[in-house]
Write a structure and sequence with these properties.
The complex is a heterodimer of chains A (518) and B (237). With 518 residues, chain A is mostly beta strands. Chain A has helices spanning 10-17, 388-391, and strands spanning 25-26, 37-39, 42-46, 52-55, 60-65, 72-79, 82-90, 101-107, 120-127, 140-143, 150-154, 160-166, 180-184, 187-194, 197-204, 216-222, 243-246, 252-264, 267-277, 283-294, 297-300, 307-313, 319-322, 400-405, 414-419, 425-426, 429-430, 432-436, 442-445, 451-454, 465-469, 475-479, 490-495, 498-502, 513-516. Chain A folds into 2 domains: 24-302, Glycosyl hydrolase domain, family 43 (Tachylectin-2, Chain A, 5 Propeller), CATH 2.115.10; 309-325 and 386-516, Trefoil (Acidic Fibroblast Growth Factor, subunit A) (Trefoil), CATH 2.80.10. The two termini of chain A are 25 Å apart. Chain B is an alpha+beta fold and 237 residues long. Chain B has 2 domains: 1-30, no CATH class; 34-230, Jelly Rolls, CATH 2.60.120. In chain B, strands 1, 2, 3, 4, 5, 7, 8, 11 and 13 form a 9-stranded antiparallel sheet that branches. The longest helix of chain B has 26 residues, at 2-27. Classes of the chains: A mainly beta (518), B alpha+beta (237). The interface between A and B is large, with 39 and 38 residues.
């Protein structure tokens, strides 16, 4: 399993923490968000207390989603022509009690302006009496992809997390179904399925204490939906086990209420709330982050952070670079100082025709290679890195093609990646511009589905880039638009040394990239 | 560490070659041959191999090209030196087996050959003909027959070392820098193969090292194009 999180250099963290966080844009204020779902051109999520958020691109969020019933911590799932919404009307200590009730209702659309909008068949599917070891709040759906059965987990710290089965055609509890205990010591659970495993994610820690909330998301897994759910050391979640998925970081604390967003093509993200975003006055906010998988376990990734990077092909390990002359830098002849003085002149006459071979006739020591290095303990002095000014004077003024070259820390391989304000985004991130560091020369998609650099960034859609971290930790890079094309295309290493735009193939490394600090 | 490899070849291989030559003068070393790396091209059309690599080529005996180091191979240098005219009709001729050209006083012959491998081992071609092996420029031409017009295919090339390639007279893909041969290293932009005859032309330059190349077409999905044939019998037409 490839797993590369390449962003955690001390320098980058320092830089990152010094500027505003790239949390979601707009007004993403919510607590206990449901799974984010796509409906009729918008994303929706619902929170505690009624209402919810919606977004056209997954980056900028506003109020406007409508959910009747009030209560706490809803969840949503789309099955066929129905969007089922579950929520807890009571319990969770609301009003001091633990007598909870999980309701499920459905609507044909989540768009409150649609004539098809309207919730129907509000039924209670699970409850707690306030005395038993369970508090029926925080519901979450799983439609089992292996057999189409619909499951719902619920519960909080007051006793057990429980699992019940619903009828996917009606959203009602299956007759005779008995609730099954699957975990303790957590809340805001969610079930997901991947590669033969069922994963039960739950939120540990304290809720509802702003910047001091210790909420964190943990996970156990089982081969059966009914459990047992064990963590990475084999501890049962019924005994409090749970492997960490995500905790506080940067300027946000208390992640909770995991919800899976499977965007297809190997891109998975998850929604959660942070109990407190310190850059937003400590309010609770929605976030969407990449979901990575490491050795069969889900781990939170990080949305792409601006900075200056080299963009490395997962296929070849080569760096995305301008197709310009390689400019040699100082230090080319000193690496083998012990051989100093021989040079590459070689024996007169060389190996083939006298006078014509590359190796014939050169003056001893005057050729390339082993000569010239410091010998015998001479001073060792640093060699300055090559600068943009040293190499860019001969670059063409117009468009410059791209290629993949040996990975070096050279100016024609260094890209500054910056979010573009007001250009929109995608789930979790804004669009970025990608420019050669120190210049305005920008990466762009062309009308013939190739990539090129243009002399200056204009903000055109083909110069805006979406950067999604994939489940293996590498990244997919795609333009917001390709001229004359409606097909989503991504940056692809069609050859070991040749980039292009092509449809993303999740089974191939051709469309996977890493970002490395120069 | 390509540079080190090539330097090592230079430093350590040269005395070996001298020793061999000295020995051969005394003991009559076996005559050099193109076998087993090449066989004469036959009269029957030849399809690419199972991976789509084109194995039938007209190869020109190497042009001597003194090169101090492959570090010369910047984009500008390679383009300048590989687009220099060394012989008449260099960018248009589709030669016959045995045709000859004269370059800087050296008479060089074209050889129509089938490579035994997916890659065309230019070093072995030169060595087998008792020609200069290092500091050389090779020209290669082939004619590919396509059963139909094929849009959005790409010419995929690997070469040791730098090279330039043309399809039907248009520059298609360049491999600059001191390269080692990697299959599908550099790939052309999307292009169209004509129904019928298509001429592919390449120039490969190298200082020290085992010069070779491999060429195939790949389709929109990156899969090799295999329903092609190469027939050099009427190559001069």
């Amino acid at each position: 399993m490839k797993f590369r999180i390449l962003l955690a250099s001390a320098a980058l963290i320092s830089f990152w923490s010094a500027r505003p966080a790239l949390a979601l844009d707009g007004a993403p204020f919510i607590h206990d968000p449901s799974t984010v779902v796509w409906c009729d051109g918008k994303y929706y999520t619902y929170g505690t207390g009624g209402g919810g958020l919606m977004s056209e691109d997954g980056w900028t969020w506003t109020n406007g989603a409508v959910r009747p019933g009030g209560g706490a911590a809803p969840d949503v799932i789309h099955i066929g022509e129905r969007y089922y919404v579950a929520y807890a009307s009571t319990g969770g200590g609301l009003g001091g009690g633990h007598a909870g009730a999980i309701h499920v209702m459905w609507t044909k659309t989540l768009d409150p302006k649609s004539p098809d909008f309207g919730f129907k068949d509000n039924n209670i599917v699970a409850s707690s009496d306030g005395v038993e070891d369970c508090d029926a709040i925080d519901p979450s759906f799983l439609l089992d992809p292996t057999d189409g059965r619909l499951w719902l987990t619920y519960g909080t710290y007051f006793g057990f997390i429980r699992l019940v089965e619903l009828d996917p055609k009606t959203g009602t509890r299956l007759p005779g179904n008995e609730a099954l205990n699957v975990a303790i010591d957590c809340e805001a659970t969610d079930l997901i399925y991947r590669d033969g495993w069922y994963y039960l994610l739950g939120t540990h820690g304290t809720c509802c204490d702003g910047a001091n909330s210790t909420y964190n998301i943990r996970v156990g897994r089982s081969r059966k939906v009914t459990g047992p759910y064990l963590d990475n050391i084999g501890q049962d979640m019924l005994q409090g086990g749970g492997k960490l998925v995500v905790a506080a970081s940067g300027r946000v604390t208390g992640p909770g209420h995991f919800g899976l967003m499977d965007l297809g093509d190997g891109v998975q993200k998850f929604s959660c709330h942070y109990e407190a975003d310190l850059d937003r006055g400590g309010r609770s906010v929605l976030d969407i982050r990449p979901l990575l998988w490491k050795d069969g376990w889900p781990v939170a990734g990080d949305n792409f952070k601006e900075g200056t990077y080299q963009i490395q092909s997962e296929r070849s390990g080569y760096a995305l670079e301008l197709a310009v002359d390689f400019v040699r830098m100082a230090g080319g002849r000193g690496g083998f100082g012990g051989f100093g003085g021989r040079g590459r002149g070689g024996p007169p006459g060389g190996t083939n025709a006298p006078g014509t071979n590359a190796f014939g006739g050169g003056p001893p020591g005057g050729g390339f290679g082993f000569g010239g290095g410091p010998r015998g303990g001479g001073p060792i002095t640093p060699i300055a890195s090559q600068t943009l000014a040293q190499v860019s004077s001969n670059w063409p003024a117009g468009n410059i093609d791209l290629r993949l070259g040996d990975f070096m820390f050279r100016p024609h391989q260094e890209w500054t990646i910056t979010p573009v304000a007001g250009a929109g985004g995608y789930p979790g991130s804004p669009y970025f511009k990608i420019t050669i560091a120190g210049t305005d020369r920008a990466l762009a998609a062309t009308a013939d589905a190739e990539v090129v650099t243009v002399p200056a960034f204009s903000g055109a859609p083909e110069q805006l880039w979406r950067i999604d971290q994939l489940t293996d930790g590498t990244y997919r890079i795609m333009p917001k638009a390709v001229p004359n094309s409606s097909e989503p295309l991504v940056l692809t290493a069609v050859g070991a040394s040749t980039p292009t735009l092509a449809k993303f193939d999740p089974s191939s490394d051709k469309g996977r990239w890493n970002f490395r600090m120069p | 560490m390509n540079l080190l490899r090539k330097i090592a070849v230079t430093v350590f291989a040269v005395p070996t070659v001298f020793a061999f030559q000295s020995h051969s003068a005394e003991a009559e070393a076996p005559a050099r041959s193109l076998a087993p790396y090449f066989a004469p091209a036959t009269s029957s059309p030849k399809a690419p191999d199972n991976e789509g690599f084109i194995q039938r080529w007209l190869l020109l005996e190497p042009i001597k090209k003194p090169i101090r180091s492959n570090t010369l191979f910047t984009d500008t240098w390679v383009r300048s030196n590989l687009t220099t005219e060394y012989f008449p009709d260099q960018f248009t001729v589709v030669p016959h087996n045995g045709d000859k050209v004269t370059v800087a006083g050296d008479e060089l012959a074209w050889h129509a050959l089938d490579s035994a491998n997916y890659n065309v081992k230019l070093f072995r071609f030169a060595y087998g003909l008792n020609k200069q092996t290092y500091g050389v420029l090779f020209w290669a031409v082939t004619v590919v027959d396509s059963p139909r017009e094929m849009k959005n295919v790409r010419l995929a090339v690997g070469s040791n070392s730098a090279s330039m390639w043309w399809v039907n007279g248009k520059e298609a893909v360049d491999l600059f820098g001191d390269r080692r041969m990697v299959a599908d290293d550099c790939v052309s932009k999307r292009l169209t193969l004509n129904q019928g005859r298509n001429v592919i032309r390449g120039a490969v330059i190298n200082g020290p090292g085992l010069s070779d190349f491999c060429v195939r077409f790949i389709d929109e999905n990156g899969q090799p194009v295999k329903d092609l044939t190469v027939n050099l019998e009427d190559s001069g037409k």
